[in-house]
Design brief:
- The chain has helices at residues 35-47, 52-59, 63-76, 86-98; strands at 12-13, 19-20.
- It is mostly helical and 99 residues long.
- A two-stranded antiparallel sheet has the order 1-2.
- The longest helix has 14 residues, at 63-76.
- The model has no long low-confidence stretch (mean pLDDT 87).
Length: 99
């Protein structure tokens, strides 16, 4: 009887249309999170390259922090990941849900 095994893709499509592999993801010691790097990590999880737990462990993130990145992309795309625009996009999203 075969055991259930997770099959992972060797690569996924990144936020800018490029191929992402485990080797092309930001290095584990990354501390400066620019929009592109955040989007690449979210794309890796969405594509099945890594699990949320693996990403959180690899990059020393909390699940809440990573979930915030996912929400920002879902709501506003890559511009929503900009730290300087978080409040702007949050208020836009809240206004949209009022009407």
């Amino acid at each position: 009887m075969m055991e259930h095994q997770k099959i992972r893709p060797a690569k996924v499509i990144g936020p800018l249309g490029e191929s992402l592999t485990l080797d092309s993801l930001p290095p584990p010691q990354t501390t400066r999170w620019v929009v592109r790097r955040k989007a690449e990590v979210v794309a890796a999880v969405n594509g099945g390259l890594l699990s949320v737990d693996e990403v959180c462990e690899r990059y020393n993130l909390t699940v809440e922090e990573f979930a915030g990145w996912q929400r920002a992309i879902d709501r506003s795309g890559m511009p929503g990941l900009r730290v300087t625009r978080i409040q702007h996009y949050r208020s836009l999203y809240e206004r949209q849900h009022k009407y």
